[in-house]
Design brief:
about 260 residues, alpha/beta, TIM Barrel, ten-stranded mixed sheet, globular
Length: about 260
């Protein structure tokens, strides 16, 4: 199953595009979850919500909805993976209020953080087996056999990432689920993705993962609602190729041209 969504749902320029002009912002999550089956929560990276907020998201979304949560930058960017016990415990103490809505936890590492496989291993071992973890290193020193071995041993996914239509990380399969982030396309209007780029990513994912293995796909190119349009287009291409895909809005519902 390919689960397709966007990275975040609260973007002001989506009002009057994806969200009806008169819909209060407090109801945007319900509107989003009626169209998509998953979302990646980015704001937890900047400010970790209280447990009550995660519980409220669970109560406001359908039973089949899945929330991927980006790990607090306190661990990844301030502590730089050092002394991970307290940050991971605090994160899990709050995010697990999502219950069965909790999807993968995303660890996005700073672009200037050089490889430290021991620190990564010490961090990953703190997550219980039932919590999926995806890791997005961004310094080239991480692309080694030692990094891959840690991810495989801890059953963590290496995040596949795209910028300007090109992979920015190795396409290693390190566990039984995939995680793809699409940051910026080359098509017009910016930052949209073109059909060829989306088709290539559908093929790469489905070549690597079987239909009984989830692959999470999040579009992070939010300006102008590009993420919504591209997510719907990606899902349509995957379905046309015969692959099971989570629900997405109809093309008409995803029309972000505005009034």
């Amino acid at each position: 199953m390919i689960l397709v969504g966007t990275s975040g749902w609260q973007y002001r320029d989506w009002r009057g595009r994806f969200y009806p002009q008169q819909l209060p912002q407090r109801l945007w999550l319900e509107h989003f979850a009626a169209g998509f089956a998953t979302v990646e929560v980015n704001n937890a990276f900047y400010r970790l919500p209280e447990r009550e907020t995660f519980a409220a998201w669970r109560a406001r979304t359908p039973a089949d909805f899945c929330v991927a949560v980006k790990m607090s930058r306190y661990l990844t960017h301030i502590k730089r993976l050092r002394d991970p016990d307290e940050p991971v415990a605090r994160f899990l103490g709050r995010a697990t209020a999502l219950g069965d809505r909790l999807g993968p936890v995303l660890l996005q590492l700073p672009p200037n953080l050089r490889a430290d496989v021991d620190a990564l291993d010490a961090t990953l071992r703190l997550f219980p087996a039932e919590v999926r973890v995806a890791v997005e290193p961004r310094h080239p020193s991480w692309w080694t056999d030692a990094t891959r071995a840690v991810l495989e041993r801890r059953r963590a996914a290496l995040v596949w990432a795209d910028r300007l239509g090109r992979p920015v990380a190795p396409r290693w399969r390190t566990t039984d689920f995939g995680y793809l982030r699409l940051h910026e396309g080359r098509a017009r209007p910016w930052p949209r993705y073109g059909r060829a780029a989306l088709t290539s990513w559908v093929r790469r994912l489905t070549d690597a993962f079987g239909e009984d293995e989830p692959a999470y796909v999040y579009f992070h190119n939010d300006p102008g609602g590009a993420a919504i349009v591209d997510a719907v287009a990606f899902a349509a291409l995957a379905r046309a190729a015969g692959h099971p895909v989570s629900r997405v809005p109809t093309p008409a519902e995803a029309d972000t041209s505005g009034d």
